[in-house]
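Budget justification note: compute hours in this period were largely spent on complex prediction jobs such as the one shown. Inputs:
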Amino acid sequence: MDDNTGPSRRPTLGDRRKERIDALATAGTVVDEPGKSLLRSAWERLRRDPVFLVGAAITLVFVVLAIISPWIAPWDVTANPLIDKVRPQSNPVPGPEPGHLLGADDRGRDLFSRLLVGSRQTLVVGVFATLLGLLGGITLGALAGAIGGFVDTVVMRIVDVMLSFPALLLAFTIASLAREPSQWTLIIAIATTQVPIFARLLRGSMLAQRSSDHVLAARSLGVRPRAIVFRHMLPNAMGPVIVQATLSLATAIIEAAALSFLGLGNPDQRQPEWGQMLGLAQRYISEAPHLAFYPAGCIIVVALGFTLMGESLREALDPKSRR
Amino acid sequence: MLRFVVRRILQMCLVAFVLSMLIFVWLRSLPGGPVSAILGERQTPARRAALEAALGLDQPLHVQYLRFLERASQGKFGVSTKVLPGEDALQVFLDRLPATVELSLLALFLAIALGIPLGYMAARRHGSAVDTGAVIFSLVGVAVPVFFLAFLLKYFFAVEWNLLPVSGRQTTGLDATRVTGMFVLDGILTREWDASWDAFKHLILPAVALASIPFAVIFRITRASVLDVLDEDYVRTAEAKGLTARVVRGRHVLRNAMLPVVTTIGLQVGGLLAGAVLTESVFSYRGIGDALATAFREKDYAVLQVLILMGAVIFVLVNLLVDIAYALIDPRIRTR
Amino acid sequence: MTQATQHSSRPGAGSSEPLLSVRDLRVTFQRQGEEEFHAVDGVSFDVRPGQTVGLVGESGCGKSVTSLAIMGLLPGRGNRVSGSAIFDGEDLLTLSPSAMRDRRGSEIAMIFQDPLSSLNPVISIGRQVTEVMERHQGLSRKQATPKAADLLERVGIPDPKARLLNYPHQLSGGMRQRALIAMALACNPRLLIADEPTTALDVTIQAQILALLKELVVDTGTALVMITHDLGVVAGLCDEVNVLYGGKVVERGGRHGLFRDPRHPYTVGLLNSIPRLDAARGDKLSPVPGSVADNLPWTAACAFAPRCSNAIDPCTAETPQWEGDQVVGFRCFNPMGGTR
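Corresponding output:
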């Protein structure tokens, strides 16, 4: 027993402060209980949800392949072992043969190896674009949502203008600004299109939090604003952001492919990427459509994996859909 | 209602103003500055100096901005360097506009005509095999890049099976009268039915490819929205009144469920333009999207400038129309 | 049972054949991967023409589900309904959906709890009133409009002609509930079910709406089933009261008898939860402890036993049987006031 609780002692200011924090902690647990059970029941649902399992399996295979691909690819992606069989007039794209599962591309490079290693660049572009977009979005959204007032108005006007611009067009415009297209112009262009989405999302859920009971309770108990933002509002606002980030990985990969297709992607063929391969394959639509089908198939499967995962996450975390 | 429209038009002017500023800043930040942007490859020191003086680049920024506005309001955006070398940039836009309008309208029509009924059916049979199948179909639709879908359609329907034309807007050598620049409409207006049919055949594949994006979005919004409305108390009230199933669905469910769908359709117009960039270049369909694709790739900044500004204006206009439509359906906005 | 018949004031003065006769109504919800839940567990009660019957209990006791089951408005999937609800010689529970649609809104009408969400936000009040008459009386919209104005006037909405053109968001809460009542009364139903019609309203408005309901019931001779958690509402309005707990009727009686001599400990608890102005200083409110989450299954116990101050051994071992008849009775092993 702490002697602070003794009835004879008059509570000092410091004690009262402690009491406040204790009260806050309990207020926090009261809020956390349903929150936790929501998370737990979400997990329970996800574990049995075939949509989530398929999405997660695709994602897992993709990420593992992307990481280990340079070591398991049978051929160097820059080597052109089949260059002798390329006949620009009659046979521009050599077909499959022993040792070359899917044949080669128009420069005699092993297609299978390039597809494998391509997963790595695709992952890099997707992840970095989403991370950068998240960073920008969280900064803007948290700023607007936490401070409110004038800052909120200005930031959200900017975000609205960005949002009113179609994402792909924005990405095209930004990518076309670069003197020399590269992997990074691609990433930055895509990340920019993600910023307003994350900003709006975060601000929305921060605003909802701001007027929620547990934040009001914390504020009325005199907790410092910064602590409220970082300890109470941000963590609770993260759920929708995580869902959106998963979905954004899919969008980023598809947008990267679109940019590469238009010739605004990474021109460096020593770093194969699915979108880039798809863009290069356009020329051979009638002679060798498989050159486009393979990378496109990979993009579709991976994008579908992220989408399925994101959608089932969204549904599991949405209390309204628990019927 | 009138006040509502006036307020929205004022807001639109503000957006246009902000956009013009953004484009100005964008032009200034281009590699080599606006002179290179306008002159492109025809750049020589003499020309450069002459243009710099003509553009008043020695003037302070706000003076430059006012000059930019002045020129823009007169439709002077410079000369195309790559898309149609030597052609006035605004003229490029005007020439290409009807083709893209025609394509987008058909795509949007397809997306709405399929998306809304399918979304409604899926919601009515929530959790059934039909619903699950439709949802998975729409998710796959989201994952398939639009230009790859265009590529697939072109490969199978045009190259392999030879059912529809591979590219372009019209069979070469066909002598058709031009009225609006929308070839299908022109054929109907002038009663040149074969020209109309020919143009329509050229439209089908790009329109189907382009429709895939708005279709998936409209389907999903309709489904979610109908699901929400079916749970509403007022639907239960309508049922409690013993209204026929048709009245409950049409008057009480669909009308309320359409509110978010209308907004979504408006937002899709921007996406259609982005999708047009990709589909039009796959099918060499000479519209704004194809011009944009070339302008992006070849950095034809004069054309880009016009197309983006005009695209934004169209987008804002469409949103105004959507807001008015919304107000017509929702009295809470109309009577505020 | 002599104890049970002690309530002398028999309700529903001109008691004739019941208009609605609910027998052993059961509603079971079955959700994927969850245990079956008996929301309504064998409820029986009668409503005679012109009578006002209250269904009282805490949220989750099954009172709203009972009314929705009678109306045929339970969500389509995941539930099972059994028993019977004889209305005018026909079992509502076995009627075809289209036959049920014909009854709803004309013979049986319903008023819901939240007037704002229960009104369609994008349709004018007038249209929402006239559509009932268009449906059931074959009137055109034009013919129905003056009748709708009369209806609005009758439920106390001032300037009814102008109000017809208004939308729900332009009306106050009390006016919205009045409009909902007008819709329910549009075809002179013989039975009106009101599901917590005053809960979402301010106290002064609550009183007005209750007064209106009482007046209308007297004027039109409509039978009323009043669903509420508020015994105050019951005291002012109902001829007969059914107290529900855990999906079963635990006590029934005429209004006066029940308030004067409650037998079931739960009824006593409910009565004691009402703050009284005339209570002596220092008297404490004695609410019912615990919550419905503590319930035992009715199959081998009294569901209320864990919260009951009067519980004895059999309460946790056997299901208490109904002692009484269709007019008065209770379901308890150790009733209160038994010595009197």
